Amino acid sequence: MKVAFQGVAGANSEVGIRQHYGPSAEAIGFPFSEQVFDAVEQGTVDLGFIPVENTIAGNVAINMDLLLRHDVTIIAEDYVHIQHHLLVNPGTQLADIERVYSHPVALEQCRPFLQSMRLIAVPDFDTAGAARALAQRKSRNEAAIAPYLCAEYYGLDILSDRIQEQKRNITRFVGFVRPDRQPKYLQRQKTSLAFNTRHQPGALVQCLEQFSRHQINMTRLESRPVDFLGAPEEEQVRECLTAMSQYTLRIKILGAYPQDFTRLNQN
Asked: Which of 52, 61, 110 is closest to 80 using CA atoms?
């Protein structure tokens, strides 16, 4: 099975792919999220796997917009605990390090550690890319903050692990496919949708009230999307969506899929 993700080998997205689909899945990285969606629609990969929200950084807007624009459907979700590791070339000691490279968000999340070690933080395009570049430079006075997989891929040593300030750093990923490749016997426990309200007073409130009136448990509310427990074919969900249609210009079901609740509450 070929699974597309945004980033280079060893990225947190690949950590998530291994967690959800196991080591047999072939993870294929692309520089941009748009290319992940193109690969799925063109059939060069079986599915895409992208982050949509993080407990610290919030909503991943570009990926939510792409889910809305493309003809794909979500079939899975998984919560991945993000762990930042300090990676170095073999033989490097902590006292040797002067500069640390990583994505700006990772650097910010590890700032207390970097400050306590008096290390210079240098922003890079992404975490795994910083680790790959470090290995290519073979420098002994630099380090990278990246996932543990990067040590495996690029021959680096893990000098210190879990160096982020906030230990509960969780990213929610979703897997998606072309509609014609949706699994036949998929458990549809949770639904994501997006909608545009009509340009009239109270339209948004009226839409949101329908979930309460039809006893549907909303699990997430952002400008996009809305997540709730239930599937579109269930009677109360059908009635809710029908009632909402009076106040909307468009409703798009982004996907109905199994709910992942096993990892969200893990430490």
From this structure: 52
